[in-house]
Write a structure and sequence with these properties.
270 residues; alpha/beta; Rossmann fold; 12 helices; 12 strands
């Protein structure tokens, strides 16, 4: 049984690490579209086409369920894919669901009218494409009222992380937090709306201050996936082999991934 993890590059490895730890009996196949990263500066049609191509490759690996461990793909492509492209015997899920479940303290299957929640002021840090899509605000509005969301497009952060430039990445994070706090001086919660950003969670927390709760996705996604597979075991695909696939240069991506997670990871050509 295998499950696919799709990302535009290396950020989804934070999700892979969490879900693999939570579900050691499942073979996870990771697909990083490193040749086309970052997605955050691409238009919606381009993101959709690239995401569909990667998901099809994971289906070929026997992954009937694919997690889009990429907020940009989840924001710009997922709804369109689910409405008109994904066949009945497959599933493609995004990473917004667990975040909004945690933020609103209600389960995704709860279809009662939106209600007031404890958190009133939320800072969203994400790629420019995710911010432009307003997907997070749209999904949140289905479940909560009276929540003010201030979104900050974090240009350059993914590029710096993918390049292994931690000093630049940290400087950019502090700059983006300062920019957001000029518009929302006292956020109660902050959402790290990109799977690269958990690597800099401590930097976000320090810049935001101790009174702000920072929501990161990896562990929330892992918990939700475990629950989903318990309820829908038919989507544990027939694949048996765990692997890491990339559209980029496998040797270079393997080196960056090893630096990224501080453990050896060997990618092969997709």
């Amino acid at each position: 049984m295998a499950v696919g993890i799709f990302d535009s590059g290396l950020g989804g490895l934070t999700v892979h690490q969490a879900v693999a730890g939570a579900l050691p009996e499942v073979a996870f196949v990771y697909y990083g579209d490193n040749a086309h990263a970052p997605y955050g500066v691409r238009d919606a049609d381009d993101i959709y086409a690239l995401t569909c191509r990667g998901v099809e490759r994971l289906w070929d690996e026997g992954c009937d369920l694919v997690i889009l461990a990429c907020n940009t793909a989840s924001a710009a492509a997922l709804r369109r894919m689910q409405d008109a492209w994904v066949p009945a015997d497959k599933r493609v899920l995004g990473v917004f669901v667990p975040l909004i479940e945690a933020l609103t303290e209600r389960h995704w299957g709860d279809n009662s009218p939106p209600r007031e929640v404890a958190v009133k002021h939320v800072a969203l840090f994400a790629t420019p494409a995710t911010v432009a899509s307003r997907a997070f605000q749209r999904e949140l509005a289905f479940r909560a009222i009276g929540v003010d969301v201030e979104a900050q497009p974090c240009g350059g952060v993914v590029d710096a992380i993918e390049a292994g430039d931690e000093i630049l990445a940290e400087a950019l994070v502090r700059s983006h937090v300062e920019a957001l706090k000029r518009r929302m001086p006292h956020p109660q919660a902050a959402v790290l709306g990109c799977t690269h950003y958990p690597l800099l969670a401590a930097v976000f927390q320090e810049a935001l201050g101790p009174g702000v709760r920072v929501y990161s996705q990896a562990d929330l996604v892992a918990e939700s996936l475990r629950d989903y597979l318990a309820r829908r075991p038919e989507f544990r695909g027939p694949g048996q082999v765990a692997k890491f696939l990339t559209t980029g240069d496998p040797a270079r991506v393997s080196s960056k991934a090893t630096q990224f997670l501080r453990r050896g990871i060997a990618f092969q050509a997709a």
